[in-house]
Amino acid sequence: MLQLGKSQKAFDDAKRYLPGGVNSPVRSYRSVGSTPPFISSASGSRIYDIDNNEYIDFVLSWGPMILGHANPEVIASLQEAIPRGTSFGAPTLLETELAKKIQAFMPNMEMLRMVSSGTEATMSALRVARGYTGRDSIVKFIGNYHGHSDSLLVKAGSGLATFGVPDSPGVPKGVAENTITIPYNDIEAVKSLFAEKGDEIAAIIVEPVAGNMGCVPPVPGFLETLREVTKEHDAVLIFDEVMCGFRASSGGAQKLYKIKPDLTCLGKIVGGGMPMAVFGGSAKIMSQVAPSGPIYQAGTLSGNPIAVTAGLATLSILQRDPTIFKSVEDTTERLCEGYRKLAAEHGVPVQVQRVGSMFTIFFTDKPVLNFDDACACNNDHFQTFFHYNLERGIYYAPSSYESNFMSFAHKAADIDTTLEIAGEAFREIAKNM
Ligand code: PMP
C-alpha cells in the first residue's frame, strides 16, 4: 500500500494558500479522487515524492523531459550559466543561438519570438494572425487545448475536459464569440465553415497531433484540408506544437505529415524543463511583430538566459544524436504493443493510440478520432488502471484526457516492470467487467 502521509499533510497545508492546493488544476488529482504525491526530486525515468516513494514517470512534467529528468549535461550547463546572472532583460548571444537551433529542426520557422509559456505562445500567435489579416474570428477544434488565454478557453481539452468545464467563467462573451469551434478530424465541417465564412476568419489554430483529449492523430486529409482552405481564403494556419513538437518527430507534426503551417507554437521540450516557449513562422508574417512591425508583443523574462540555456542544451543533445528520437519512439511502441497484447489477453477493450513518443490508453473498443469519442471511453476502467498503477510505482497522467510521454532515460527494464504491472491492472479491470 502506497504511503502518502507526508504528501497528505503537505496537501492540506497547501490548500490554505493555493486554490485547490496547486498551481495548475490537473495536478490536484481531483479527477482521480486521491492525494497527489508531492514531489521532491527526479532523475532519469524516475520521480520521487516526499514520502520516499519512487515512481517510473510517464508524465515527464507533461512532456518536456524527453531526455529524462535531471539530464547531467543539461544540469551542468545550468550550473555554469547561473553564476553569470539569472535575468538581464537585454539581448544575449544565446537567444540567437537557440533560434538557429530551433530553425534547424523546424525550417518553417524563419523568424520566431521567445516567450515564457505555451499559453503566451498561442495567445501571441493569434494576435499576430489577427493583426496580419485584419480579421477577428478564429477557428479551434473541440477538445484541443492551447493554454488558458480568453480566446482559446472555449471547448478546450486537458484540465477543462477533465473537470467537465466547457467554457470558463471570466471569458468575456465578446471574446468567446470570435472563437468558432468545430469537431477535430471533421474535414466536411472545415470545408463547409470556410465555404460560408472563410473570408472572415483570421486563423485556424490546431494541435496537429492532439494530445489534450488523450493522444489523437489527425485522420488522412485533415491537415491537408486545413492547409488548403486557409490558403484559399488568406487565413493563417497555426500549428500548436507545444506538445507534439519534438515528439511526433524531430521536426514535429509538420515534418511527419509534410504540411507547412504559417505559424508554429512550441513549448515544453524547447525550454528543456524551464519556463520557455516560442512562436514563429514565415518572415513575412513575423516581421509584423514589434518592434519591426506594429503588432505588439513583449515580455520581461522573454528569452531568459537560464531558460534559454536549458533549451539550448536539450536541443543540442537531440541535434548531436538524431537517433535519440527513433530510440524513444521505438521504446514507446514496444510499450504500446505490450499494452495491446496484455489487454487483449484479459479481454479488456482498449485503443492504445501513439504518435512518436506520446501515447494514451483509451478504454474503448473503437478508435478515438475526436472529443466525443474520448468522452465515450470507460472512466471506471481508467480509474482502476490509474490507481492500481500508482499504488505500485507507475506514474501516469491522472486523467484520460491527457497524453503520456516517454523519455530517452526509460530503459528496457522500466518497460518490463511497467508492462508487468499493466497486465495485473488489466486483470483487475477484467474481474469487474
Ligand atoms: N498548447 C498545447 C498543445 C499544450 O499542450 C499546452 C499545455 N499542455 C499549451 C498550449 C499551454 O502551455 P502552457 O501550459 O505552457 O501555458
UniProtKB/TrEMBL annotation:
Pathway, per record? Porphyrin-containing compound metabolism; protoporphyrin-IX biosynthesis; 5-aminolevulinate from L-glutamyl-tRNA(Glu): step 2/2
Q: Which UniProt keywords apply?
A: Cytoplasm, Isomerase, Porphyrin biosynthesis, Pyridoxal phosphate
Catalytic activity reads:
(S)-4-amino-5-oxopentanoate = 5-aminolevulinate
Enzyme Commission number, as recorded: 5.4.3.8
The main place the protein resides is cytoplasm
In the record, N6-(pyridoxal phosphate)lysine modifications are located at 268
| Cell location | Cytoplasm
Tell me where the signal peptide lies. Answer: none
TM spans, by residue?
none
Gene Ontology MF: a single term? glutamate-1-semialdehyde 2,1-aminomutase activity
Cofactor(s) for this protein? pyridoxal 5'-phosphate
Name the domain of life.
Answer: Bacteria
UniProt entry tagged with the keyword Protein biosynthesis: no
PANTHER family noted in UniProt: GLUTAMATE-1-SEMIALDEHYDE 2,1-AMINOMUTASE, GLUTAMATE-1-SEMIALDEHYDE 2,1-AMINOMUTASE 1, CHLOROPLASTIC-RELATED
Quaternary form? Homodimer.
**Family according to the record:** Belongs to the class-III pyridoxal-phosphate-dependent aminotransferase family. HemL subfamily.
Name of the featured protein:
Glutamate-1-semialdehyde 2,1-aminomutase
Organism, scientific name: Veillonella absiana
